[in-house]
Amino acid sequence: MNQWVIFVFGVFSLFFLIGGVTLTLKEFRLKHFRPSDYFFLASALVAFLFANYLWFFVKPEYGIFVGIWVPSNLILGLYFRFISSQ
């Protein structure tokens, strides 16, 4: 399959992902999200975008390496949220 076809579908998927995250944040903003949560979410989004850029335009191995950062950033955010709530 052509890399451009995968890239286009990835962009559409990202568009719907951002829309879903935005709507979810609007619904739960007042009672569930803290300001620090936005930083961890933004770091995961930046790592996701950078990993996709590396995968398609530089070298797929670099994209895989940076893609590991996404769940790591989210888990780190969950950890700090957990220890701050005790």
Percent of residues in β-strands: under 5%
User: Which runs of at least 5 residues are low in confidence (pLDDT < 50)?
Assistant: none
Q: What's the count of strands? A: 0
Rg from C-alpha positions? 15 Å
Please outline the major beta sheet: none
Residues in helices, as a percent range = over 70%
Shape call: flat
Total tally of structural domains: 1
User: What is the mean predicted local confidence, pLDDT?
Assistant: 81
The N- and C-terminal alpha carbons lie at a distance of 49 Å
Can you characterise this structure?
The protein has 86 residues and is an all-alpha fold. It has one domain (3-84). The protein has four helices and no strands. The chain has helices spanning 3-28, 35-58, 60-67, 69-84. Helix 2 runs antiparallel to helix 4 (69-84). It is flat. The protein starts with a helix and ends with a helix.
